[in-house]
Design goal:
This protein is mainly alpha-helical. It has twelve helices and seven strands. 41% of the residues are buried.
Length: 280
């Protein structure tokens, strides 16, 4: 497999030895930027992963496509690889976390929104921003692989996705943003989404993409991205410092993939109870 990157790219990552915290050999801030502020992927050639693909191959993919990068939707989409030509079609997308569908449902509940304004005014402000920013251009997103986005429980119009969006909207309106993020991280992750579908007796979703990534690589870039999301939401004042520290520890231990957490069990129970009776 051949990779050729523009010589003017600067790597915003710190290389270290392999550790449990950095299994790919570096602590990632996964972006390659060109002079115009966009990821330099124009000359990157990728093929489907073959058996035995090395970690270094996946490291190159993660860095070159900025997987796990967190920013507003309007900024993340500027550098989406698909705009650089047909060879990069269906590579990476920007995923709203929490999803727009949940925020839109929450926006319609005026009575609970009044209470949310008192409980968490910054979270209330995020929901109300849809009035002047209906597509969430200024809301936080994370860049993920095309198929990982499409396989997440929070994406699409399947019945289970609609049920998941409804549950997350109810959690948002409760005002506890830390719980909101834990549930959003579980339902927004392709691996835990697959687990939830399997445990609920539903058909697991597998979307075909133009890049394959091992489960280890997927866990790694999502873990880094989720940590950056926690920091970004703390900066916005939606969660406090104590909540952020606990959430980062929770993410570092891959608790968003743990079937035994209270949040996972609640999501699974909600899907089982509402899947066959749910109407949008």
């Amino acid at each position: 497999m051949l990779y050729r990157l523009d010589s003017q790219c600067s790597f915003k990552c710190a290389f270290n030895t392999v550790t449990p915290e950095a299994p790919f050999g570096f602590l990632l801030k996964p972006t390659i930027w060109s002079g115009n502020g966009l990821p330099m992927v124009e000359h990157l050639k990728l093929s489907k992963k073959t058996e035995g693909q090395s970690r270094s191959d996946e490291t190159t993919i993660i860095i070159a496509y900025g997987l796990g990068v967190v920013d507003t939707y309007k900024n993340v989409k500027k550098g989406r690889p698909s705009q650089f030509g047909p060879d990069n079609y269906r590579m990476a997308e920007a995923d709203h976390i929490p999803p727009l569908a949940s925020l839109r449902i929450a926006r319609r509940n005026h009575e609970r929104l009044d209470r949310l304004l008192q409980v968490n005014p910054r979270l209330h402000e995020m929901i109300m921003s849809l009035d002047y920013d209906p597509t969430g251009q200024s809301l936080l997103t994370m860049r993920v692989l095309y198929q990982d986005h499409r396989d997440a429980l929070t994406t699409g119009n399947s019945r289970e996705s609609q049920v998941a969006s409804r549950l997350l909207a109810e959690t948002i309106l409760d005002g506890d943003a830390a719980v909101m993020l834990r549930k959003a991280f579980i339902m927004g992750h392709p691996i835990s989404s697959r687990q939830l579908r399997e445990d609920a007796g539903l058909v697991a979703s597998y979307t075909e993409g133009n890049i394959d990534m091992s489960d280890e690589g997927t866990r790694y870039y999502y873990r880094n991205g989720y940590i950056e999301l926690v920091k970004a939401y703390q900066k916005k004042g939606i969660i406090n410092k104590n909540q952020a520290q606990k959430l980062i520890s929770w993410v570092e231990r891959d608790m968003h993939l743990d079937r035994d957490t209270e949040e996972y069990e609640e999501i699974l129970d909600y899907i089982k109870r509402h899947f066959h009776v749910f109407r949008w």
